[in-house]
Design brief:
This protein is mainly α. The chain contains three helices and no strands. The protein is 42% helix and 0% strand.
Length: 50
């Protein structure tokens, strides 16, 4: 199977999380990797320490 990258964007309350959860339910866990923008940013308190 050829790999794909799917980007999901939209404003607050647009349904990004709901869409992503439905997408997750469609695939096996080993077939899908979800990277949330919230998962790779440091909290603002930690950013100022660096």
């Amino acid at each position: 199977m050829k790999p794909y990258i799917i980007g999901v964007s939209g404003g607050s309350g647009a349904g990004k999380t709901s869409f992503t959860e439905r997408l997750r339910a469609t695939f096996l866990e080993r077939e899908l990797c979800i990277i949330s923008q919230d998962d790779y940013y440091l909290p603002i308190q930690e950013q100022s320490k660096r």
